[in-house]
Each structure stands twice: as structure tokens, then as C-alpha cells.
Amino acid sequence: MKNINITELPNGIKVISEKITHVKSFSLGFWFNVGSRDETEANSGISHFLEHMFFKGTKKRSAKKISEDIESLGGYLNAFTSKEHTCFYGRGLIDHIENTFEVLADMVQHSLFDPKEIEKESQVVIDELYDIEDSPDELIFDKFESNIFAGNSLGMPIIGTEKNLRAFRQEDLFKYVNENYTFDNFYIAACGNINHHALLKFTKKYITKKLHPSNNAKRGLSINTSNDLHIAKETQQVHYILGRPTYGFNEKKRIPVSVLSHILGEGSSSRLFQKIREENGIAYQINSFLNSFYDISTFGVYLSTSEKSVEKAQELIFKELDEIKNKKVGQKELSRAKEYLIGNMLMSLESTTNRMLRISQSVIYYNKIRSVEDTVKKIQEVTSKDIMDMSNEIFESGALRRVVLSPKNLLLQKAF
């Protein structure tokens, strides 16, 4: 891949770039391979809280000046925290890439974590937590993964708990940063009309603080037996997930699972959308999902519907699962799912930000850039037999778990 370069510096930082000559902009990301999966119950939520606090002022910039220094150049700064990563990123015109690099470098090295700002921002994040609690379509996914991964850090919500958010102190934040925001956990990635050597120059010029090496602690994974979960909440609709753990990014079998998900419930031509929404009109939201981590994924079906329709919807879902287990998918339907998956991936790559996300995660997960052509080839190789075999494996009797969020604890009959 002639336009992509990867350099590992002597201190362990990995610098990744993809040059796209026909654009006038860039997307630049500072990635740390740390997220809520690396937390404990005692500090759950600290990775996400730190994401907020890095924007609250450094030794040379106030929170307002951090924004002004980028926005005055027509640029944009943002960040996100996942269960496995934290990313700070900026977009702008290529002439201003060094300015953006310097601001991000200042944030991740010299943030003050002022106790007054901690107190204010903790309330902001608590309000964000309340927003999730008031959004059943978001809350149910947290509850599903908490149930599936009970006893494992993957089960803890990214946002943490109100108790922890009220308890975080300046020394807690500095301690977590010193232990986890380290050179060997640090990836700098950029995509756009950029020069890789310039990116290396900026790294050497602006990353001046010595970031201690991490303890290289391996992320553990233990899956305990879980049961169905019913959550009573005042809602107008019943929110329902049926699913289980399956293969992560490090497994070849994840791609057939992804194709299976598209056949079942991704897109308006999918089986579940057609059966439950179009033919029976009993749900506005119905889709399958595949949420992946390095060594495991969660796969399932989500819907929201009325209390009177949820039993019928569940019955129809199970019928579709039985159908796909027992009858091979036709070539036309299989080809349509593959083209949908490939088309979405290729169209997303028209964004420099999406391209930056892709090359970063590729290096973090695989220690190399996996080419688009290679991914397309692997999708195209999935057969009808692969889909049938995967369906029988994933939907085996007793393997799926339900999480139901409703005005009262519904006692749904099992259809298996």
C-alpha cells in the first residue's frame, strides 16, 4: 500500500499515515490503547471522564483557548472513549495540521486536571449518565453487555457509575494517566493530503514528556453463565434484545458472522425488517447488530414494540432463526448482503476521518494495515454453507439470552 506508512519510533510510539492527494484537508488522531475494559469497579468510568478532562485546560491554554486555537483556523476537535480505546482527534485544512498536532500534544501531556474543573465536569458526565438512563434504546445495550459479560471488565459501562464520578480526584486522574497513557500504548494516525516525514517531525518536536512504559497487563476474558434479564422501567415501549457472545476481531469467523447479521437484520431488505416491520407492522425499530472487540463480539437482535406485540415479534424472530439454521441462503440473497456490506465499507472511506479510524484500528488490532481489497476478498469468499454452519453454531438451543426493558417485568414464553 504505497500511500500508507507506519513508523515505530525508538520510544514505542507508532506513527501511521495515509496520503490522499486529491483532498485539501486532514484528519489527525491521537490514540491510546486504553478504555473501560482496563478499569476496575473502583475506578469504572475514569477513561471516559479523562476524555472530558483533557479538554479542560493545560499549563498554557484554558479550555476556551483549546477550542479557539482550532476553530479560529476552521478546524474541529473531538474525542471518544470505547471499551478498548481512547481517541482525541482533529480535522482541518492541511495548512493547519501542525497547529492541530501541537494543541493535541499539549492536551495529552500537560493537562492540569484542576480540582474545580473536576467538580464541574463530574456533574456534566453525571447528566450524560442520566441521559442514557432516560434513553431505553441506549440503556438496554449497556444492560445486555453487563449481563453477558458479568464478572468481567467488558461488562462495565463506559460512562461508569455516579458514585465513582462524584469520587474522582486529581490524584486519581494523574495516577491513571501515568499508568496507562504510555508510549507503547500511543498511536498517532493521520489521513489526508499529508506528508509522513512531517508527521514524524511533529511527533519528535511536540511529544516531549516522558511517558512511562506500561505494565503490559493482558486483558483477561472470562465468560460466566448468564440468564435472561428483565428490567422494569417507565417506558411507552418494550425494548428487547436477544443475543450472545461470538467471535472478535482476532478470529477469521467474524466475517461470516457479519454477513449473517446483514442477512438477518441490517438494512430494510433484511429478513427481520421485512417480516416484522413490513409484513406484520409490529415494530418501528428492528435490527441485528455485531459489536466487536479484539477477542470477542456481541451479536444479537434488537427491537422496540408495544407490550401487546412483543410476544408475536419474538415468535417471528425465532421462526427466522430456525429458517436460516435449516435452509441454505440463496445466492441472490447472499450476494445482496455481501454487496451491502462492501458498499457501506467503501462509501465510508470517502471520509478522511473514517479512513483515519480504519488505519488506526487496523494497526492496534492486527499490528499491520489490512487492505480494503483483502477485506473485500474475505467477504466475497463467504458461502451459503458458512452462513448455515454459523447459524447453527450461534443459535444453538439455550445459547441466546434475552434482555427486556419494559414498564413491568414481562414473563415472555421461550420459543426454543
Q: Which stretches are poorly predicted, pLDDT < 50 over at least 5 residues?
A: none
- Record the strand order, biggest sheet: 1-2-6-3-5-4
Task: Encode the helix/strand succession as letters.
Answer: EEEHHEEHHHHHEHEEHHEEHHHHHE
Can you tell me the CATH topology of the largest domain? Cytochrome Bc1 Complex, Chain A, domain 1
Main sheet record: 6 strands, mixed
CATH level-4 homologous superfamily of the largest domain: Metalloenzyme, LuxS/M16 peptidase-like
Number of contiguous helices: 15
Verbal overview:
The structure is a single chain. With 416 residues, the protein is an alpha+beta fold. The chain has helices spanning 46-53, 63-71, 97-110, 115-133, 136-148, 162-167, 170-180, 196-206, 254-265, 271-279, 310-326, 331-348, 352-366, 372-380, 384-394; strands at residues 4-8, 14-19, 25-32, 76-81, 86-93, 186-192, 229-232, 238-246, 285-292, 297-305, 401-406. The protein has 2 domains: 4-206, 2-Layer Sandwich (Cytochrome Bc1 Complex, Chain A, domain 1), CATH 3.30.830; 229-406, 2-Layer Sandwich (Cytochrome Bc1 Complex, Chain A, domain 1). Strands 1-2-6-3-5-4 form a 6-stranded mixed beta sheet, sandwiched between helices. A 5-stranded mixed beta sheet has the order 7-11-8-10-9, with helices on both faces. A hairpin with a 4-residue loop joins strand 9 and strand 10. Helix 10 packs antiparallel against helix 11 and helix 11 crosses helix 15 (384-394). The chain is globular. The mean pLDDT is 94.
